[in-house]
## 1
Amino acid sequence: MARVSNWQIGRSMSYWYPESRPAKQFAAVFDINKCIACQTCTLACKTTWTSGKGQEYMLWNNVESKPYGSYPLAWDLEILRALGPQEWRGREYAGRTVFEAAPAESRVLGWRPEDLDYAHPNVGEDECAGSIERGAHIRIPHAAWLFYLPRICNHCTYPACLASCPRGSIYKRPEDGIVLVDQSRCRGYRECVRACPYKKVFYNPLTGTSEKCIACFPKIEGGLQPQCFLSCIGKIRLAGWISSPGAARPENPIDTLVHIKRVALPLLPQLGLEPNVYYIPPIHSPLPFLRQLFGPGADAAVRAYQEAPRDPDLAGLLALIGSTERIVPSWKRDGETVIGMAGDGTEIVRVPLREPVYIRDAFDAKYNVARVNCP
Amino acid sequence: MRTALRCAILAPLVGAGCSRAHPPAAVEIVIAAASPLPSDPTDPAWESAPEYVAALLPQDLVEPRRLTPATTRVRIRALSDGAIVAFRLQWADATKSDLPGASRFCDACAVQLPAKSEPDVPAPQMGEANRPVEITFWSAAWQAAVDGRGDSLADLYPNAAVDHYPFEAPSLAEGSAAWRDLSVLYAPARALGNPGAGPRAEPVEELNAEGPGTIVASDRTGSRGCGRWSGDGWSVAIARKLPAGLSGSARGQVAFAVWEGSHEEAGARKGRTDWIPLALGRKP
C-alpha cells in the first residue's frame, strides 16, 4: 500500500499503487437537473459497444431512478452498508475508504452482484412516494421526489478495478487517464467486478473476460466527445479534462464547474476512488440524501446552481453543454455570447447565453388551430 | 519440555503402529508405465499407478488470498509412456460448476512443473522471476464446450431472449469474411486472440509463469485433458510432455491446484499444493 492524495476527501489515503496522475485526466460533468431518463445515451452506448454475444446484459451506460432505482440491483446500498458509517468533518472524510476497509485477504472492500441483480436495468424506475389525492399512505424518508442518475465508468484517479486485478490486466492510460481492461490479458477472475463499487465492470461469460466503458477513446483521441454525450437529448453532458484543484484554470470548462464554481460533485467520494464524472446535484431533492451521494459539497452546489440565472459565467457554461460534438477544452463569455474554443484558441462553437424565447398566441386564427408553447 | 520430549519419542511409535493397519502414506508421486495412455479419467488403467493424496494448502502469498480453500485434498495418479506424462486428479465436489455466468464460477484444476530440471526448484506458487514454471490448466467450462455445449447465450441461460446481433443482418452471408469481422467486432477478447476467449478444441490450456500474476499462454502444444464429474466429485486427466530431466532415478517436482466454482474460487483464490517429488516407476 502507498499513501496518495485524494482531494475529494480532503486528505491522503492508502492505495495499492503509488500516486501517478496522467498527463491529462478525462472528466465529465452531468447536469442531473436536466436528465429525463430517455435512455438515448444507454442505447447509443449499447449499439456502439455492447451488441455482441455475452454482452446482452451489460449497460456500460445506464440511467437509474433515485432514490430507489439501481443497476445492478442495490449497487450503492451494498457498498455503503459494507463500508459502515461514513463521517465527514467539514470537507475532510473521517471514515474509511474501500481501500482502507479492505479485508485482510483482499486489496479492496467489495462485493459481487448475482446474475439476477443485472436482470432488470432499473428496478424502482420512476417510483416516488409522491402525494396522491388522498395523500401518501406510508411515511418514508424520501417522500415525493425522485431524480435520474445517469452513470458511466468514472475513470477514477484511483480505480478499485485496477487495484484489485491480481495480474495487472487493467491499466490507466497515462495520456488521458482512461481506464481500460486489456482484453488480450484478462482471464476473467472478476476481482474487478467485485472491487468496483460503482459496478461498472461486467463479465462476459462467452469470452471469459471482463469488459467496461472505454470512454469511447477512439473518439476522445480525435477530439470528440463519447457517444453517450453526443446523443444526449437533454444536453446534460460535458466531456473534457480536469486539473488538480491547485492547478484549476478558469478557461477550462470542467475546472470551472468542479473547482471554481463547485457546482459539480463526484459520486460517493467517500469510497476513495476520486471518480472523474462530476454531477450537478438535483436542486429539489433532500440535502441529506445529496450529501450522502455527493459529499459535503452538496449544499453549496445546490445554492450555486440556484444562483445560475444571476451568475452569467455559470449560466454561460451551462449553455455550452451539449452544443457541439467536439471536446471544448477552453471557453470564454463575451457579453451575452458564450464561445467554446480548441486548445489553440480556435473557435469551435458559439451559443447565446440565454436561448431566445418566442411565445405564440395560444390559438392561430390563420390556420384555425390551437398551439402549445413548449420551452 | 518433558511432555514435549515424550510426545516426540512416542510419535514415531504411534506412526509405526498405524502403519501395520494401513499402507504407509506415499512420499512421492510414482509414475507408472502404461501404453497406450488412457485419455479417460475413469479408465481402469489408472489403477496400475499408486495413489498419492496431496493436501491443498492456502494461497497465502498474494492478494486476494484464499486462506481456507474449499477443497482440502486431491488424489493423484500418474502414468507415462516414456514421452507423455498423464496425471489424474480426483477431488470431492458435490456441485458440478461448469456453466459460466456473471456470478457463476467454474471448477478447474492445474498441474505445474518447473520449466527447467534443476535441484533448486522455483517457488511453488507460480514460480519466480527468471525461474519459470509450466502450467497445464483444465476448466470445467471448457470441458463442457468440448463435450458439445454451444457458444451462445441460450446455452448458458436457456430462458434468455435475444432480439438480434449485428452479424445476423440478413445482408451478411453466414461464414463470409464480413460476417466473421462483425462477429468479433463486439468480442474484443476474441479479436485480439485471447486464448481463453474462444470456443476451445481442448479443455486444457498451456501456460508459463514466473511468479503470481504473470501467467501467459505458452507456445507448447500437445497437452490433452478430459474431466468427468461423477456426482460426488471430479476426475480429471491431464496429459502433457514428460519433463526432460525426468529419467532413470532422477526426481522431478510437480504441484497441483484446484478451484471450486461454487465457492467462487478463481485465479488466486484457490487451493494449491506444495512441490511434490515426482519419480518414474520401474517398468513392468
## 2
Amino acid sequence: MRWKFVIPFVVFILIIIAFVTFFLDGIVKSIVEERASLLNKAKVEIEDLDIGLLRPGVRIRGLAVANADNPWRNLVEVGDIGISVSVLPLFSKRVIIDEVVMENLRLNTNRKTSGELPRRLKKRLMAEEKGKKKPAEVPCVKLPNLDVFKKEFNVKELVDIDRLESVRRAKELSEDVSKMKAAWESELKGLDTKAKVEEIVTKVQGSVESLQKAEIKGPADVLKLQDDLKNLREATGSLKDLQKEIEAKKSAFQKQATGLEKSLKDEITKLKEMDLQAILKDLGLEGITKARLAEAFLCPFLAKTLTFIWNHADKIRTFMPKTGKDQPVQTRIRAKGRDIIFPSVKKGPDFLLREARLSMEQEKWSAKGTIRGVTSDPVLYGNPTRVDIRGTRPQLALNAILDHTGKTPIDTISLDLRGYPLEGFRFSENPLSLSNIARGFLDLKANLTLKGDSIDLETMTTVKNLVLAFAEKEGENLVATMVKEAVKTTPSLSIGMAARGTRENPQLSISSDIDRAFAGQLQRFAGQKVNQLKASLGTQIDGASGKDMKGFSDSLSQGKLDILNQFGSDESLVQENIDSLSNLIAAKTGKSKAPTKGIEGILPGLIRK
Amino acid sequence: MILLKLIAKIFRILNAEASPKQIAGGVVLGMIIGLTPTFSLHNIVVVFLILVIRVNITSAILSMFAFDLIGYGVDPLSDWLGYAILTSTALRPLWIETYNAAIIPFTRFNNTIVMGSFVISLILLYPIYRLAEYGVERYRSDLAAKFQQWRIVKAVKMSRFYKYYQTYRSIVG
C-alpha cells in the first residue's frame, strides 16, 4: 500500500467535488438554457439558478421562454420556480420531483432583446432536425389578388387548350364508349342466343314432328302425346328463361349506357370547373368565392394551430415514450456506442414530477392550477398526466389528460375561455396589413383529442366588440381594403374551425359569419368584374371541349344503337321460336294456357278431332 | 524530441529496479483505462488501484496512452460485443437489477462501448499481464546488453539531449 499516494488522490477528488459544487449552478444553468433553447427553437433564459445541496432542490428566478414565431416576445415568463427533489433516487440516476411551485407566471410578454437562437445553436438545431419527420403542411387557399382587375384581360390568351383537363378527358371519352361497346359485344357473344335456341329446338324436334302427325287411336297414344306436349312446354319454358336473361342484360346495358353518359358529362362539368379554378389561381384569384375568401382568411390560423399542436405533441411524446416492463430492448445512440435502456422496474420511472403548482397574476390574467404525474415512463407509472388550470380573470378552465399508458397515446385537452381582452394583441407580418387589435373580447371553446397520429379538433371562437387596427401601407391591395371594410361592419364574429383525420391528411372545415360580411364587400369591390371574367372563361373552356364532347355524344348514340340492335335480333329469334312452339301447343290443346284437369282438359284439340 | 523522450522512458522502466510483476501490473491497469472510455466511473477505481497498489505508475501511464490509441480501432468490436452482452436474454434480469441499483448506473455499464471494451480488457488482462512480465524478464536477461550495442541506442546516448537528461536525472535523483 502506497499511502503517500492515497492522501493526494483523496485531496484531488475532494478538490474536484468542491470545484463542481462551486460552479455547479452555472454549469447546470448553461446546460438547461442550451437544451431548453434547442427544444423551444428560441432562447430560453434563466436569470439565476440555485441548486440546494443541504436541502435538495432547485430554485430558478427569472425564467423567460422566447416565442420562436415572434422573437421579440416571450411565450411565458416565470418569476420564481421552486423545485424540491427527492435525494435517494438521485443515487440510482432517477430524478423524482416531489413538488414544483411556479409563481408570478406571465404570458406573451415583451422582450428587450431578440429571442432568436444564436448562430451556434441554430447550426446544432439544423443538424439535430435533419432527417426528422416534419408534420405535413396544411393546404390553404391563398387570398385573392383583386388588383389584377386593374388591367384588361385577353380571355383567349388566358385559356391554354393544352392545359385544360376537360379537353383532355373529352378526347378520351370516345375511347371509353368504344371500350364499353366492345365489352357488351363480347357479353352478347358469350350469351350465344342462336346456339342456345338451336339446341333447345333440336332437342324437341322429335316431339314437334310427332305432335304434328298425332292421332289418338288408343290410350297408349294419349300417353305419348302427353309426353310430347310436356317436352314442348319445357322447351318453351327454357326459351322464356333465355328471353328473361336477354331482357335483364339489355336493361343492364341501358342502365350502364345512361349512367356512363351522365357520369362522364358530370365529370367533364367538374373538370371544366377545375380548369376555371386553375386559371383563376394563375391569376391570383383562387379564393374568389365568399366561402373560400373566409377560408383563405382563416385557414392560416388553423394551419398554424395544427402545426403548433403536432410539434408540441411530438415533443411530449419524445419525453414520455411508451416503455415499461414488456417492451423490447430500447437503444439510444450516443456519440460513442449505444445506451441500452432497461426498464426501471423496482423503484419507478427515471423521471417523475409528482405535482407542479402554478399561479399567474398579470394585468389580463389571474389563474391557478396544477400539473400532476409528468414522467419519462408512463407505462411504469401507470397514470396519465393531468393538467387542471382555472382562472377567474378571465373565466378560464383548462383540462388536459395525456394518457400514454396504453398501446396508443391519447391526449385530450379541453379549453373554455370567456371574456379574454384582446386589446393590444399584435399580429405578425400578414398580407392584410393587420397591425393589432384595438378592442375586443374573446370567448373560446376548444376540444382536442390526439389518438396516435389522428386528430379531432373542434374550436368555436366568438370575438365581441372587435375593433382592428391596420398598418398604413402605400399601394395597399384591394383585398386588404375589402377585409378592412368587412371587419368594420362586423363588430362581432363567430368562427368555428374543425380538423379531423391524420397528420398527413387533415380534413379542415371552417365556418364563420365573416362570410356574410365578405360576400357584401366582394360584390361591392369586384362582383361584376369577377362574374364577367368567370363567364367569358367558362364560354372559352366550353368551346374548347365542345367538339370532342359532340364526338363523344355521337359515338355513344351510335354504340348504344348497335348494341340495342343486336339485343333486338336476339330477342326476335327467341320470340319467334316461343311463338312457334306455343302455337303448336295451342293448336293441339286448343288453349294457349296451361290445361285444366281431366283428359278433355289435357287434350281438348285432339279429342275434338 | 517527444519520441526520444518516450523511448528513453521505456528503457528507463525496463532497466529500473521495479520488478517485472510491478511493471506488468501497471501495464494491465493502464490498459483498462486506455481501452475503455476514459471518463467512466470505474476508471476512478482503476486510477485509485494504480496509486495504491505497488505497480509501476510510469508503465501504467504509457500503457494507458498506447491502449487508448488501440481502443479507437477496437471500438466497433466493443460496440458489437457490448450490444450482444447487454441484449442477451439470459443476462437481462441481471442488467435490469443492476440498472435499478444505486450508484452503478453512473458507471455507464449500459453503454455498448463501455461494456464491450471493459469485457475485452478483462479478457486480455491475464494474457497481457503474463506477456508483459515475460517480456521484461526476457529483456533484462537476454536483450538488455544487446540493446546497448544497437546503433540507435548508441546515437541516443551520444546525443546532447541524453547528456542533458542524464545530468537532470542525477540532480533530481
